[in-house]
Amino acid sequence: MRKVLYILGQMTDQDVDWMAQAGKRRQIPAGTVVIAQGKPIDSIYILLDGTMSVEVERVGQIATLNCGEIVGEMSFVDSRPPSATVKAATACVALELPRDTIRRKLDLDVGFSARFHRAIARFLSDRLRATMHRFAPAGGSTFDDEAEGELDLDMLGDIHMAGARFDGMLKKLLAR
User: Fold this and answer.
1) How many domains are contained in the chain?
2) Is residue 158 part of a domain?
């Protein structure tokens, strides 16, 4: 759930309400490929319930995604095809946010655009740091004072609000 905190912690209540209204609640059966490596995508997803696996050709499974994870954000940011396949490991529920809908909102609402891009940047920075930490030499670290799993200190003030926003989004979307 930590990943969604990076996104919703930067957003306002109105931004989160817009996302819940503009997005579509999607039920995804186990085994369904949500994103195929190398094939363009039309949406990003917030995983609301269930588990997804992330797989890379010739490597295998590299990650498991749980409630609160964001899927498809890299291809949204750089418009390149996905570098991995994401599929439902269990039956899942996700909020699907179409690329065109988000792009229109970004073009029309400068404040939303700034908050959204800052949130994505923080999210991707956290993912890169975690990846670097995972591949650090045994007994050493690529970071001086950072431990895997620690939140950015600047984020601590946003965590409570982000959690409340995500809980509210879950209640609205899972009740649909």
Assistant:
1) 1
2) yes
